[in-house]
């Protein structure tokens, strides 16, 4: 039988891509003890290292609006998106959450008047894509922020089961693929940032084209 150990934290973040590292930094800065677990190598795994822009900005210029952005995302997701999550995502972007990343040193392309330089991308009815000199290394910048903090990083530890108590998630069970060790995580909050459900560009490839959905 495999050995296992028990680790406790206020917050367990599952997935160490751009979303997970950002969540871990936020939780830590809010005063929580944090464990970040990834089935691959944190900073190397996921889609972050290959992205060359951020298709997430809402220029806020007419004719764009929160509602149009929301509708675009629901349409591109073929109605499968969690609409509450999409609403929250769009609202955060509208309020400028993307720009929070600048304090970590990520530079976004801007026009001469200082406004974000946005480009048109597939799946969007308005210009919302911001080129970043650091897009491909954005996850590295965020990993550096994780490393600066007392956040426990556990690479190569895939989460195989969420633990619940009376219908509430109270942690998870992980499997370290290098050591074969099982880890029981007990956490007050568990944040799932394990990536999307589709494969890259899946929607458009299924239609027989080679275009990627974010381009
Ligand atoms: C080739 C390519 C090019 C792209 N270009 C762009 C672009 O130009 N602009 C743009 O905006 N977006 C682009 N994207 C999309 C963008 O990279 C993703 O939207 C973004 O990286 C998603 O980040 P994430 O942290 O939510 O998920 P991910 O980056 O997918 O990270 C999820 C993490 O969770 C881990 N994980 C999964 N399951 C488990 C588990 N059971 N236990 C523990 N860990 C787990 C994975 O190992 C991974 O590290 C591109 C994607 C690809 C593949």
Walk me through the topology.
Elements: E1 4-14, H1 18-29, E2 34-37, E3 53-55, H2 66-76, H3 83-94, E4 118-119, E5 129-131, H4 138-148, E6 152-154, E7 157-165, E8 168-176, E9 182-192, H5 202-206
Parallel strand pairs: 1-2, 1-9, 2-6
Antiparallel strand pairs: 3-5, 4-5, 7-8, 8-9
Helix pairs in contact: 1-4, 2-3
This protein binds flavin-adenine dinucleotide.
Flavin-adenine dinucleotide is lined by residues 14-20, 37-40, 45-48, 50-56, 158-159, 193-195, 200, 214.
Which spans of ≥5 residues are poorly predicted at pLDDT below 50? 199-215
SSE pattern: EHEEHHEEHEEEEH
Bound molecules: flavin-adenine dinucleotide
Q: Considering the protein shown, what is the CATH homologous superfamily? A: FAD/NAD(P)-binding domain
Contiguous helical run count: 5
Radius of gyration: 19 Å
**What general form does the structure show?**
globular
How would you describe the oligomerization state of the chains in this entry?
single chain
End-to-end Cα distance, whole Å, is 48 Å
Instruction: Classify the fold: give the CATH topology.
Output: FAD/NAD(P)-binding domain
Give the structural class: alpha/beta
Major β-sheet profile: 6 strands, mixed
Describe the structure.
There is one protein chain. With 215 residues, the chain is α/β, with parallel strands linked by helices. The chain has one domain: FAD/NAD(P)-binding domain. It contains 5 helices and 9 strands; from the N terminus they run βαββααββαββββα. The protein has a 6-stranded mixed beta sheet. The protein has a 3-stranded antiparallel beta sheet with strand order 3-5-4, with no helix packed on it. Helix 1 runs parallel beside helix 4 and helix 2 packs across helix 3. The N and C termini lie far apart (48 Å). The C terminus is likely disordered. The structure holds flavin-adenine dinucleotide. The site of flavin-adenine dinucleotide has 29 residues, from helix 1, strand 3 and strand 7. Flavin-adenine dinucleotide binds next to helix 1, strand 3 and strand 7.
